[in-house]
Amino acid sequence: MADNKFKLSVMCPDRIFFNGEADMVEMNTTEGYIGVYQGHIPLATVLSPGVMVIHNNGKERKAALHSGFAEITPDKIMILAEAAEWPDEIDFKRAEEARIRAERRLAGSESGIDISRAEAALRRSLARISFKG
Amino acid sequence: MASMKDIKRRKESIQSTGQITKAMKLVSTVKFQKARSRVENARPYFDAMYAAVSEMLSKSANIEHRYLKGSESLPKAVIVITANRGLAGGYNSNVIKLVSSWGKTKKDMAVYAVGTKGRDYFAGRGYYVAQDYSEVINEPLYSDAMKIGRRVLDDFEDGKIGEIYLAYTEFKNTVVHEPKLIKLLPVTAEDTAPQIAEAFGGMQVTYEPSEEEVLDFIIPQYINSLIYGALMESAASENGARMTAMDNASNNAEDIISELTIKYNRARQGTITQELTEIIAGANAIS
Fold this sequence. Notes:
The complex is a heterodimer of chains A (133) and B (287). Chain A is elongated, with a radius of gyration of 16 Å. In chain A, strands 1, 2, 3, 4, 5, 6, 7 and 8 form an eight-stranded mixed beta sheet that branches. By secondary structure, chain A is α+β, with helices and mostly antiparallel strands. Chain A is built from two helices and eight strands, in the order E-E-E-E-E-E-E-E-H-H. Chain A has two domains: 6-87, ATP Synthase, domain 1; 91-129, Single alpha-helices involved in coiled-coils or other helix-helix interfaces (Up-down Bundle), CATH 1.20.5. Chain B has six helices and six strands; from the N terminus they run H-E-H-E-H-E-H-E-E-H-E-H. In chain B, helix 2 (91-100) packs across helix 3 and helix 4 packs across helix 6. The relative contact order of chain B is 0.19. Chain B has one domain (41-245): Pyruvate Kinase, Chain: A, domain 1 (3-Layer(aba) Sandwich). Chain B has helices spanning 4-59, 91-100, 116-124, 142-157, 189-192, 211-286; strands spanning 76-81, 109-114, 128-132, 163-171, 177-185, 206-208. The radius of gyration of chain B is 28 Å and the shape is elongated. Chain B has a five-stranded mixed beta sheet with strand order 3-2-1-4-5, with helices on both faces. The two termini of chain B are 33 Å apart. Chain B is α/β, with parallel strands linked by helices. At the A-B interface, strand 1, strand 5, strand 7 and strand 8 of A face helix 1, helix 4, strand 6 and helix 6 of B.
């Protein structure tokens, strides 16, 4: 392995989403976007729905990541996501509909759990839509 | 001795049963292969999740968290995963037997049923069936596991249940399926500790935003993944068990048919001999 690369594996319940090397990976944690290089201190963090960018040999690969957590060690990053999608797997029409649905639900004031669920749905759909053009 | 007509009728009925069992075997073979590949796809995630949670709990042994302590006095929730259909050998009854011989009283249990066989058994014997998710067992999705997981966690937090257990059938290989009863909540270091994967290599780990919040997030996800894994394993076991059962049934049908064929031929020969004897006796009487 080259000096400044680390192993990255992204796992979903139904498949191994990504397994390989990377120079840098960006992801959206609950505290905001972070970029991780090799040699990071050990960190366990919670991910929010958002875009993950894998940098490798000057190339970028983007993917939508929907809630999960990341376990970071100096030479390895493991992401356990409940769902992940490459841009070409996303159904934009459905994502758009989900966004509108979630926004409507947020506009109408309902109680507790529904709001957090609608917010999560909204964030997921926004992450998906952000790939479009 | 049974008449020719009776034997023939019996043979035809067994033949058509044999055709049905053969067709069922083919169907479950196809389903089984699909289910098995899904189990294999789900395992890496499941193993990684298990290792991560064990690791975290072993590091944070003395942390106070609501998911880490249960209540002995409240009823225990059991998620019972069985099939919606029978004709799968001992598959359903093995899981049911395991749960009913658990040594808890009816009052001390709340059943969350996945699969009508388990639901009907426990509902019929006066257990409290809190929820029924039978429609998910044929094609389990991760979102189904999330739905079940959310429900049991909500009930746990509301103080309706004190502990959460999961009864399912572990898929070892095509012919070996083992019913299992595991504890989901409260998660304790002892339950997960035996083989701690040293993911962090013994280093001090930082938690962001905080240890509590990471646990808040990770434990529901851990439970969802356990439920999902159990659904997958059970679906594979169910189809494997049905495949074996139907194969045995088809073989048995063939055996019975060949036995009946011999009996039928013997009966036919018997009637011919008897007819001849009668004719000869009649001819002799005339002459």
